[in-house]
Write a structure and sequence with these properties.
heterodimer, A: alpha+beta, four-stranded antiparallel sheet, B: five-stranded mixed sheet, three-stranded antiparallel sheet, globular
């Protein structure tokens, strides 16, 4: 007998195992010059950040900007997240679309705001609101937002709450010549039972670090929201701007004096702020994937599988002839094995009911099997 | 393909190509049974006369590195372990009535292959016949009830599964391909589905005037 049927108790199914890893390349949890990966930084594509010939091409950067972990065009460059700016009234869209004298037709900032509103807010809720610690104004609303959307393939099933940290920096300085910056985390540590909102779980973005927690407990400043199940961070441009000032002369909140009638490239302002911030402290994020797994228990009893079809287990034809004992062909090689055969398991094959070999497991060491011992091999298959 | 780190005992499992194909098609694998193998082991390294004693007899075998799992089901579980009664002194040997098949492409008779196992085995699950190159002809399994053709249930040698033909049965008929234009040489492997042993013979389809 070479095949043995599994008993029902040998197969454990329906278990889902969470597997967590860093968001970035090779499972790194930190990206940016603050990380241990030398030279890691963030990049955008010049094809997106320069006006292209087609204004109707979403990839031309009117709507969002993709952020890469390496210079675009290099072999290991990959998109990790996208930055978008939205305004409920469409402000920041150019007064005239490119090459048009007919007035704006696209309103990309309005499209973005409404897109996230539809996805994240309850029906009838028209404006993003953010929690503050003010007794007189417990929430602050904003008609403009920044979004950081992590690519689905990268955040897998969840952006882990409590494991996200982002440093934003302005170009100016605070008192003492220290560059104006703020490090943001979610409040899942202080407020774990957020409940499920429209858009799934939702946490508030607060000032603090993963290592030390909130800068000041309960100090909500209306900075933003995190939707871990969707891999989305929403930031309140007004409040962030108040804390870090301008970035390369541009405000994080829409300021018509910065842009005039031109399309306001707010995406690049936030990107530059992330880039400057990452030089102080890398962007940290961890993700989780829920992997459904089946466990197979291969139980090899003492009476089973003690002989092998391995040709070296028996005397070969040529060996028998050369030794002058042709009658020994096929006999077990060692007389010791006549009474106490030993075999060494290296491979377990799993078969379906049609006898197809559908999975294979390899042991890291040959495993001795004879009539005096039994083996239990547990095989986990993620399906 | 590399070697597994053997400082700790772990199990490295992967789906085979066939497994992935079935998972994509049916959404499940429907695993029902298992088999064990010792493909990497050379039992000639066992030293029953080791001067340092019995603890060292199988030292060379136990230190043999093991390959990582790979996905080609046709190259896996080449040498299966088998359950036999204690005290046997030889492994069941499969034999065929012929040591080779050599026929003309227009041969109209039947080439019947009747495997047997000594001692008696494979009477229930029968045998798997694998014609390495299906262009050579057709192999037809007979006398085995209620079975469907497994794809590649066992090792078939250095041939691609896409070029091989597999059939199950207690006996087989071989019909050469009459449309061949050149003499073709291949091999036929018969594997015992209970004992795991196998035998391989050459197959030549002769086209007159060619070689």
């Amino acid at each position: 007998m070479i095949f043995k049927q599994f008993d029902s108790s040998d197969i454990v199914a329906g278990r889902t195992q969470p597997v967590s890893t860093g968001l970035w390349s090779d499972g790194e949890a930190v990206w940016g010059n603050g990380s241990t990966t030398v030279g890691s930084s963030f990049y955008t594509s010049s094809r997106q950040t320069q006006q292209s010939s087609s204004q109707f091409e979403p990839l031309n950067g009117l709507y969002y900007t993709n952020v890469y972990d390496a210079p675009t065009g290099s072999a290991n460059s990959d998109i990790y997240f996208s930055i978008a700016y939205g305004h409920s009234a469409g402000s920041g869209s150019s007064a005239f679309d490119t090459g048009s004298s007919q007035g704006s037709l696209l309103f990309p900032t309005k499209a973005i705001y409404n897109q996230y509103k539809n996805l994240l807010l309850s029906p009838g809720d028209e404006t993003f609101t953010f929690v503050t610690s003010s007794a007189s104004e417990p929430v602050t609303s904003s008609n403009e937002i920044f979004s950081i959307s992590v690519r689905s393939a990268k955040y897998k099933d969840r952006l882990d709450p409590g494991q996200f940290e982002l440093t934003l920096s302005g170009s100016g300085t605070m008192g003492g010549g220290i560059q104006s910056k703020i490090t943001l985390i979610d409040d899942s540590r202080d407020n774990p039972d957020t409940g499920v909102q429209s858009g799934g779980k939702r946490y508030n973005i607060i000032a603090g670090t993963i290592a030390d927690g909130a800068t000041k407990t309960g100090n909500y400043q209306g900075l933003g929201l995190m939707y871990p199940d969707l891999g989305i961070i929403i930031l309140n441009p007004q409040k962030i701007s108040e804390l870090i000032g301008t970035v390369s002369g541009k405000s994080l909140t829409l300021n018509t004096s910065d842009w005039g009638n031109q399309f306001a490239r707010m995406n690049s302002v936030l990107f530059n702020s992330i880039l400057l911030g990452s030089k102080h402290s890398g962007m940290k994020a961890r993700v989780t994937e829920y992997v459904p797994a089946r466990h197979f228990f291969v139980r090899v009893k003492n009476q089973e599988y003690n002989y092998s079809n391995n040709p070296t287990f028996v005397v070969s034809n040529s060996e028998a002839i050369s030794s002058g004992t042709p009658q020994d062909v096929g006999k077990i090689r060692f007389t010791d094995f006549y009474t106490n055969p030993k075999v060494y398991i290296t491979t377990v094959g799993l078969y379906n009911d049609n006898n197809d070999l559908v999975a294979v497991a390899k042991l890291s060491q040959p495993l001795l099997k004879d009539f005096t011992n039994e083996c239990l091999v547990k095989i986990k298959i993620d399906v | 393909m590399a070697y597994i780190n053997n400082e700790i005992i772990t199990v490295d499992a992967v789906l085979t190509k066939k497994g992935r194909e079935l998972l994509a098609a049916n959404g499940g694998l429907n695993i029902k049974s298992y088999a064990l193998a010792d493909d990497e082991i050379d039992y000639r390294l066992y030293q029953p006369n080791h001067p340092q004693g019995s603890a060292y007899y199988d030292l060379a075998i136990r230190n043999t590195p093991v390959f990582e799992a790979f996905t080609d089901e046709t190259q896996l579980l080449k040498y299966k372990l088998v359950t036999l009664p204690a005290g046997v002194t030889s492994i069941p040997v499969i034999s065929l009535g012929q040591s080779a098949i050599y026929v003309d492409k227009d041969y109209k008779g039947e080439v019947v292959i009747v495997p047997s196992t000594n001692p008696v085995y494979n009477t229930t699950l029968g045998y798997t016949a694998i014609l390495s190159n299906k262009s050579a002809g057709t192999i037809i399994g007979e006398q085995l009830q209620n079975v469907t053709n497994a794809t590649i249930p066992t090792f078939i040698g250095d041939v691609s599964s896409t070029t091989a033909q597999v059939s199950l049965g207690l006996r087989f008929r071989f019909v050469p391909n009459s449309s061949l234009t050149q003499t073709l040489a291949t091999s036929l492997t018969v594997v015992g589905n209970e004992s795991g042993g196998s035998v391989t013979i050459p197959v030549t389809i002769n086209v007159k005037g060619t070689s």
